[in-house]
Fold this protein.
Amino acid sequence: MSLPRFSVHRPVFTTMAMLIVIILGLVSLWRLPIDLLPEIELPSLTISTRGDGESPEQMERQVTEVIEGAVAAVAGVEQITSTSATGISNVTVRFSWGTNLDAAANDVRDRLDRIIRNLPDEVERPQVRRFDPSNFPIVILGVSSALDPVDMTRLIDEQVRYRLERIAGVAVVDTWGRFEREIQVNFHPERLTALDLSLEPIIDAIRAANIDLSAGQLEQAGLELTLRIPGEVTDLDTLRDVPVAHREGTSIRLWQVADVEDTHRRLTRLVRLDGERALRLAVRRQSGANTVAVARDVLAEVERINADMPQLDIVPVINSAEYIERSIDNVTRSILYGGSLALLVLLVFLRNFRSTVVIMLTVPVSIIATFMLIYFGGFTLNLMTLGGLALGLGIMVDSAIVVLENIYRHRNEHGTEPMEASVRGTTEVIWAILAATLTNLAIFMPLIFIQGTAGVLFRQLALVIAFALACSLVVAVSVVPMLAARLVPSQKEMAQHQPRWMRAVVVRITAALEGLDEAYRALIGRVLAAPWRTVFTAVVLLASALLLPPRIGTEYM
């Protein structure tokens, strides 16, 4: 039994199968993460090495060139670029597309382990990082307060960051412009010279006075006690009173040769919010988390923090979720507008509301079914997946139109019974609509094999269009004939049950379409009467069009 005949004679089974697909699709849509674009992982690694103030020439000669020589032999390396600055060396290794970055990173680390002993002792161990756009902050917050800057930083570290990092989907919260507490000992050179003191013994004295040592263990009455000798400096007065030298039986205290201040570390990053001193909090999401949902939860928690801590003023400076939501809303509205226009066009040309509804059912069913592919394929709801649905919106109804038109012809021209007309009409055109669908798939499927960033971006678009068109084909040969056998009336039945105002509208639309047919027939006659002129005009238009691409600008996005 063919699929059209099975669907027409098993309407309950067909309806339940369609409902199951719709339910699974809606559940998938509910669970889909939302993002701006597909996750892009560029096949590149960056090896960062920090020194101790070496010149750029030294870093290049002693660090950068050594690392470049070590990683050049790693499999899959296409290009190596590097930059050397004062105390900094960055080597970027780009691999061919398709390279397993985890395995490549392990190979790079193995190579670096072999040349660690060749690097200067002053430089730190090289760090291997990969570029991941998902690591960019999704929300950037500005924090200002009338508190002491050090106290504000401590409050943010101990309470605010904890409350933000415990939100589901938040990976880490970074702070910029921190005021880290620092005890500064500023010596008076003239006093050191007068007492013939150098800095090294003074530093050793301060270090010896600020220790916390273990004194071993003591067993007593069946208990094992751990003994410690607490000697850490807990206040500035104690530190100022530390003896740093002895002259003629007299101890020289630290306050006599230096000023001790409780301040903060020198700022290397300055953050201001509305002209006031502030801190910046960068919230980064976990890989695969819903960007919009995480950003919404972060902003809700910020409102609660502002209410609980009036001494702080936390405001969102950058919220990438707003841009993502606006972009997704724009594409969603485009899909709704396109669907509405398609419905209107079908209604005008078919001049039958039931027939239009039957055809338009293929669009939501195909779109909802495609959400299952997006979810189980590990994709996100982004501009490319939604763009694929918008792009394939008009093509989804093609198969259903052809099927319904042939069913309609069997009923009106041959007088066939509704169920048999649905089966015959669908069976006759099933190979034609299959060929048309495969033709459309042949346009989009090659996008799957594109390499590079473009391949990452357009692969999801191509898969979504292909799956949506396949779903529309299945719906056209199963659901459409089943509904047509029960809902779509013949031309005679339609004329009998139509209200008078609707018949008047149908008559006017029919007259307009017949006038369009006459105009097209006249145009075809003129074209066939002058074939060489027609071909020459087409060639001229084609040549003119080929001159335009060089004048069109190009850009990445």
